[in-house]
């Protein structure tokens, strides 16, 4: 009984965990800037993911690069990391890509 259950669970994990394919129930829309892991929060976890992305460290397939481009220049780089850090520390209250920013 347990072997069958484990086999079914293992099969489901393999079927729904295909690299490069993301399943989402949320309707497509504009990116939530700064929320790289799409958990609805902008926090230090997003900063850590952005740092890893910039340094090309690990698997970055699950990062929303549109949400990571915080200055709107089409490139995800250390400037975006600095902007995200300033936002998390409440130095700014908006990202440059969203419009006016408090510097």
TrEMBL record:
The answer to whether the entry has keyword Phosphoprotein is no
Reading the lineage from the top rank, the first entry is Bacteria
GO MF terms held by the record: cellulose 1,4-beta-cellobiosidase activity (reducing end)
CDD domains in the cross-refs: Dockerin_I (cd14256)
EC numbers listed for it are: 3.2.1.176
- Whether Thylakoid counts among this entry's keywords is no
Keywords tagged on the record: Glycosidase, Hydrolase
Q: Name one GO biological process term.
A: polysaccharide catabolic process
Looking at the record, the residues that make up the Dockerin domain are: 29-97
Q: Which Pfam families match?
A: Dockerin_1
User: What Gene3D superfamilies does the database record attribute to this sequence?
Assistant: Dockerin domain
What's the protein name?
Answer: Cellulose 1,4-beta-cellobiosidase (Reducing end) CelS
User: Upper taxonomic classification of the species?
Assistant: Bacteria, Bacillati, Bacillota, Clostridia, Eubacteriales
């Amino acid at each position: 009984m347990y072997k069958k259950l484990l086999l079914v669970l293992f099969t489901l994990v393999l079927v729904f965990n295909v690299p490069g394919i993301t399943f989402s129930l949320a309707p497509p829309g504009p990116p939530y800037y700064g929320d790289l892991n799409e958990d609805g929060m902008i926090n230090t976890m997003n900063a850590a993911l952005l740092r890893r992305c910039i340094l090309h460290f690990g698997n970055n397939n699950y990062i929303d690069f549109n949400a990571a481009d915080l200055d709107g220049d089409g490139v995800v780089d250390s400037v975006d990391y600095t902007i995200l850090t300033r936002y998390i520390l409440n130095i700014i209250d908006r990202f440059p890509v969203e419009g006016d920013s408090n510097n």
